[in-house]
Amino acid sequence: MTRGPRLAVIGGGLAGSMAAVEAAQAGLTVDLFALGPAKRSHSAAAQGGINAALNTHDLGDSTGEHFDDTIYGGDFLANQTPVKNMCDAAPGIIHLFDRMGVPFNRTPEGVIDLRLLGGTKFPRVAFSGATTGQQLLYAADEQVRRHEAAGRVHRYEGWEFLSAAFDETGDGRFLGIVAQDLKTMEIRAFPCAAAVFGTGGPGLIFGQTTNSASNNGYASYALWRQGVKYGNPEFIQVHPTAIPGADKNRLISESVRGEGGRVWTWKDGQKWYFLEEWYPAYGNLVPRDIATRAIFKVCVDMGLGVDGEQCVYLDMTHMDPAEVARRLEGILDIYQLFTGQDPRRVPMRIFPAVHYSMGGLWVDYEQMTNIPGIFAAGELDYQYHGANRLGGNGMLSAIYGGMVAGRAAVRYLEGLSKVTAGGGGGAGGGGADQAGRAGSPTPVDGEGAGALAAAVRREQERDAAIARMDGTENAYLLRDELGALMNGNVTVVRYNDRLRTTLEKLGELKERYRHIGVTDSSGWSNQAVGYVRRLWGMLELSQAITLGALQRDESRGAHYKPEFPERDDANWLKTTIATYTPDGPKLSYEPVDLRFIRPRVRKYDVDKGASRNV
Amino acid sequence: MSEKTAAATVLFRIKRQDTPAAAPYWDEFRVPSRPFMNVVAALMEIQKNPVNTAGRRVAPVVWDCNCLEEVCGACAMIVNGRARQACSALVRDLAEPIVLEALSKFPVVRDLMVDRAVMFENLKKVKAWTAVDTTSDTAEAGPRVPPRVQALNYQLARCMTCGCCMEACPQVNRRSGFIGPAVLAQVKLFNSHPLGQPLAPERLEAIMGPGGIAECGKAQNCQKACPKQLPLTQVLADLGRQTSVRALTGWLRR
After folding, report:
1. pLDDT at site A245
2. Pick from A213, A245, A476: which is nearest to B36 by CB?
3. Does A95 contact B142 at a Cβ distance shorter than 8 Å?
């Protein structure tokens, strides 16, 4: 039933699950690793919906419009070819998930209904109540389970990826991964010639965010440390509408505005709808970076937050309660629970919160990183959103990227098999050479096994060293300090002097890290040791994010510097590439793929169409 | 209520267990109170200062959580005697001391963390999926679905596999092997989906044997326990009828 090489997939969210489905469908055996049951992944927390130019209502939408909105919304920093391919694939992806059983909301006629989100004039978002991510994730997870029942997928849920293993004495090829069972704490190697990573973003770096507890970024850090390039680290999305909380900031979906919700505050005794006034063409549905900056301006610069606090109103009290229940179910209950107020009757109080990383591991158009055999997809990669992500594109890029990665990994492994089967001479010089560097489908020969064992030993030593830490610092409190530092200085408004200070303070935090006392000495299901390991990754990734922001002297998408308020294409229309060195990140830059749409000024006070010049 | 908001701390009494084989014991912690604090935030506070009320430094409490907004199902535990998600359990609504225990119907991993693998295994048993031919774009939308049907399916599809219904069900115990309401709801969901229907007979067969629908004792605790208000009583009644019909007419298909 199962034949051929094994593929490791790390991450059980939308990207990882879809990569696993693709590979299993192609006949590979897949080992799927996730921190917990895949069904509980952070994809479940996505609310508003998924973009696809289905044009159900015949309002003139097209995949070309979707493509243009995405590039324009991302302030022209995204490589255009993969974005175009994603937008072209989107309608097919909705149909696939429809067939997979997602209960998308329907029009009275029974076809998939669409709604508006920010940064577009077209209803383009397919949705399932206000828990679309949960529904898409469940559908993907169910297909994984189908393949699992057929023996093509083996789940390692409750396992954490620690590092990749390479043939260090030989040609450097990728040999497999090292992972830890979070229950028994066993550290083991899993040989594989290719691996797809879909381990999400590093949101926890910023303290209280809209992210889940699992979004620690450790896998991306570990791969970066091992030589994978990191693209556009400085581009962090701050979502305009969240409710602050002690454990996290809870997202209030953009779909509230998509369904008619309005943002306002009091000014001179009047309700002031500042988004509608400042951006008449898009109003409350400006993209997230624009809305977030506007709310900051109102609260921080103008001091016009509601009751003098850092918040403004998101108002849906004028909307039909029955429609609200049908289309936004889920959001309202959460708001009511955590504030004690009914958003149907009282406007919600919201404030921006860190939400998503546009930056991530560098990948080519086949989702392969610069290390052959290692693929990345989902929020983990840097590929689809440029300087700012549009609502509805996050789940789309996770699914699309995961599917591309899964298929590419299958082709990659097939290529290796052919080269190996062909033996020395006949397989074609270039291919053999590439494969020789890259790997082989059955990598565990004698030397490979030695390298894998060495990689396991390294991680065991790292683990033991952390377990021995007996200083006075508490890791959880240090993370709180890191979160406050990064949230305060490297999010919505960025000043070079504060970014420099932040880099210094990160250095201090790294020093204090060495004085952490580990609070749990158990050898069973020890959550403290893993937390300390991940915190180091957060500190080092924070340096890349901050340095990327410091260097980029312009404003583009989510990256805004009052000292450099304009976009500067002449100097900065380029991708930041952060490379790991033990002395801190090194930055370099590479050109952006602009082959379809010429960059133009991005503004939302007038229609985008008016300034279009494809 | 008022004296609680005035109080600077909240008292937690937590049932702990170091390993699956170890004997459980109790620890008490005083946690600084914050407005709209939930149980998860309190457990996070304990991580920052893992000192119990006896003044002894102990290992921080181990528990499971992820989304923190009641959509992932990870943090289900027993809070003051009731199975629920810890993230949506607000301290201000709970009587003190707030008592936390692991779900009792699943093997304890450590402290408040349990192993709910049995639920995922059962989802496999009942083939809770649609058998799509391919992930490729078939250039075709799925079947049309009236909004009324979508609304019912959406309700069933929101099951987080959290296990609260299993905890509340008297029939779920070590002797019965009862598959439980959550998984049965998925049988109902996929049997009513046009692309799920080809497997409907197999799903019904899967719940007709030992541990299946017949184990339901109609206590109806499950529906009350469900944090997502799945119409579980109705689901169980419907499936009971369908399996009875199938049992009676089964010989016709031979």
Report:
1. 84
2. A245
3. yes
Residue B227 to residue B77: CA distance in whole angstroms: 12
- Euclidean distance between CA atoms A166 and A417, whole angstroms: 19
Each residue of B14-70: pLDDT tens digit?
Answer: 999 999 999 999 999 999 998 889 999 999 999 999 999 999 999 999 999 999 999
Map out the domains of chain B as residue ranges: 2-114, 117-253
Q: Which CATH class is domain B117-253?
A: mainly alpha
Question: What is the ipTM score, two decimals?
Answer: 0.96
pLDDT of residue A180: 98
Q: Where are the domains of chain A?
A: 238-354, 448-572
β-pair partners for B30: B11
Write the residue in A36, A92, A247 that is nearest to B74 by C-beta.
Answer: A36
Phi then psi for A529, rounded to 5 degrees? -65, -45
Q: What is the pLDDT of residue B53?
A: 98
Question: Distance from A556 to chain B by nearest Cα, in Å?
Answer: 30
- How close does chain B come to A565, measured CA to CA in Å? 36
> Mind listing the pLDDT tens digit for each residue in A492-515?
999 999 999 999 999 999 999 999
Cβ of B44 and A476 within 8 Å? yes
User: Could you say which of A124, A152, A173, A288 is catalytic?
Assistant: A288
The CA distance from A240 to A491, in Å, is: 12
CATH code for the part of the protein at A448-572: 1.20.58.100
CB contact under 8 A, B129 and A477: no
A288 catalytically annotated: yes
Query: What are the E-state strand segments in A99-211?
Result: 114-115, 125-126, 153-157, 159-166, 174-181, 187-191, 195-197
CATH number of B2-114: 3.10.20.30
Helix (H) or strand (E) holding B186: helix B181-192
* Chain A residues with beta carbon closer than 8 angstroms to that of B144: 106, 109-111
Residues of chain A with pLDDT under 70: 1-4, 420-446, 609-614
Place of tokens 């469900």: B226
- Given B66, B113, B134, which is nearest A40 (Cβ)? B66
Please give the CATH architecture assigned to the domain spanning A238-354: Alpha-Beta Complex (3.90)
Neighbours of B89 (CB within 10 A): 22
